[in-house]
Amino acid sequence: MNTLLHLNSSGRYEGSLTRQVSQELVTQLEKKHSLSVTHRDLAKGTPFIDESWIHATFTPEEQRSAENKAALALSDTLVDELVAADTIVLAAPIYNFSVPAATKAWIDQIARVGRTFVYTENGPKGLLENKKAYVVIASGGVPIGSEMDFASGYLTLVLGFVGIQDVTIINAASIVQDEQTPVSDAVAAIIS
């Protein structure tokens, strides 16, 4: 484990449980494994895919125009970050029963046929194997893992789709609200 990708998508900066817990997780993993960390704040602007992006992805790479390459430039960077990472820490609060739009925009940018998955005669196959993902989730009212939580299952599915099968869901609210155990100790127990 040498490289860690830390993704935040909470629209809150002050008082964000996912930002707090994911940062503690990244700090401890960085110390424990001497990691190189790439931070990306999805909430600061992750564009939605559009017609030019879709056209560019369906154009064979060797035939892409300058416009096609420009349309995919950020997507290529996001995919490169994910490919390079051995460990991913994805912090995503639950907004209206699911992930923030910024998280969904990132997913759309990185789910790239030929880059992160391929189609086979047995269906799609993820290409990003042998990676570890921690998904830090918080919700103001939707219990994590409940039938109303469309975020944790969705993120596990999407990560699995691109080949990341080793996914740990972390309930940030339960960690922060546990007055008996400091956040640092709770996170240390998760990664031990």
From TrEMBL:
Binding site for FMN: 10
Catalytic activity: 2 a quinone + NADH + H(+) = 2 a 1,4-benzosemiquinone + NAD(+); N,N-dimethyl-1,4-phenylenediamine + anthranilate + 2 NAD(+) = 2-(4-dimethylaminophenyl)diazenylbenzoate + 2 NADH + 2 H(+)
Coiled-coil region(s): none
The UniProt record lists the keyword Oxidoreductase: yes
Cofactor(s) needed by this chain: FMN
Annotated EC: 1.6.5.-, 1.7.1.17
Class of this enzyme: oxidoreductase
Keyword Transferase: no
Top-level taxon of origin: Bacteria
InterPro entries per UniProt: Flavodoxin_fold, Flavoprotein-like_sf, FMN-dep_NADH:Q_OxRdtase_AzoR1, NADH:quinone_OxRdtase_FMN_depd
Cofactor binding notes: Binds 1 FMN per subunit.
Domain Flavodoxin-like fold: 3-183
Any GO molecular function: oxidoreductase activity, acting on NAD(P)H as acceptor
Alphabetical keyword list: Flavoprotein, FMN, NAD, Oxidoreductase
Subunit structure: Homodimer.
Family, as annotated: Belongs to the azoreductase type 1 family.
Function: Also exhibits azoreductase activity. Catalyzes the reductive cleavage of the azo bond in aromatic azo compounds to the corresponding amines. Quinone reductase that provides resistance to thiol-specific stress caused by electrophilic quinones.
Protein name: FMN dependent NADH:quinone oxidoreductase
